[in-house]
# Entry
Amino acid sequence: METAFNKLFKAVVLLVLVAAFVFFIASIGGLVKLLIIAALLAYIIDPVASFLESRWMSRTSATAAIFITIILLTAVVLFLVLPLLSSQITSVQESLSSGRADIFIGKVEQVIAGKLSFLGIRNLDLAGRVHKATAGIAAWIFSHALDVVSLITDMVLIPFVVFFLLKDGRAFKKQFISIVPNRYFEFALNLLYKMDLQLGNYLRGQFLDAVIMGILSTFALWLIGVKYFFLFGAFAGIANLVPYLGPVAGAALAIAVSTFETGDLAMAAYIALAFTLVKLTDDALIQPLIVAKSVDMHPMLVLLAVIIGGRFFGVLGMLLSVPVTGFAKIAIQEGITTFRKYG
Amino acid sequence: MNSFWGNIFKAKQKEEDNIRDILRKVPIFKDLNNRELNRLERILHRREYRQDEVIFHQGDPGLGMYVIESGSVGIMLVPAQTAIAELFDGEFFGELSLLDDSPRTASAIAKTPCKMLCLFQPDLFDLIDLDPRLGVKILLGLSRTIGERLKRTNEHVHILKHLKVQPETD
# Structure
């Protein structure tokens, strides 16, 4: 039986290792972020390349075929979806800075101040905070996402790295294994295979789950007549990459913006119901089928990972922190299991 | 300069031909054509071992088979350190590990400096997914080899039984 002290000790060691790993990654900066994104994408696309390879295509042609398809799909997305998404973002910003939202926020502030006066809450300046937040989001979008130079660099470098990871991934692994000393060779190989399998299943599961959640949320919001159904649906899908926090954040954003804009509390209830139903469908039907349970992470670990990721790499870091922590967890778990077998 | 690069390419070609010749002599791969041997070669790992270096320990999880490219290998039972076989160029061991990952039943130690070609279970399973026809050929070869060994073991058991029974009948 594992004692409570042992469990605590293991948790502390795990946290220290994760912190050291994150610090190391943060110290190397943007290049690592780029490599992580490329590696995650390569992991997600790899089975498609293998499938094409099993249909008598060479690995290079399979990789090229996938890239041509992705470029075409991206072009379609850019032409069809991006204008819709950007018009919805602009519209949300405009409506949040309109007087109507201020009136509603003022009412909410009055209610809060009235009910919680015993806590000494008087002037919350909610309207000011909301304006600051929306301006912050807009500034972030313009300074990061729409920074043309870094966008073009990323758009060229990431596919470049993904292409070679996909095409020569096996050769890279073989090269890596060839430098391991004979004594640890079988151990390292065994560990690498197991990690590869688990990490691949985990990442593909998470990605597929996020896509399905995005589609389901968009559909549910459209069904109940939410104006910015596409924006909130897409956000919910992406946020779903972060377990526990993501689905709540997705619903909270949709509810907050919709309520501030229309002042309609019934709509807020409908949105909450729609997100609850989508989440229930996800938990009961989708996740058991596609998400690897072996990488179940404790909510506390997810929270810490998101905070640390956000602290070092911003919004993107928050999204990447969960798969990276999943990778670290798999590496440690499999490392210990394999080490015990060879012990 | 041309002859320099020419020599490098020739040396590489010679090495590949040499590996293919060794693989062709292994009963498991004897039915494979050149294209298939090429594909198999791409998933093999090449390792070099010093004299007396342990290749794997008895009790380790089995991960795959080793083909001796050059050198000799002793198969030992621990803790008695009893040598049960000595294998040479072109011979192979550990092939049962391609089918399951049960622990190694003996240790393998390099008797002389050795060069090995190693085929591991996960790579073989990947190959079966990517090229099922080649995968079936290898698995058939593997089954045939294991069948042969089983037949030989049965014969040994029969002989041993006979030896045991004989004194009673005398």
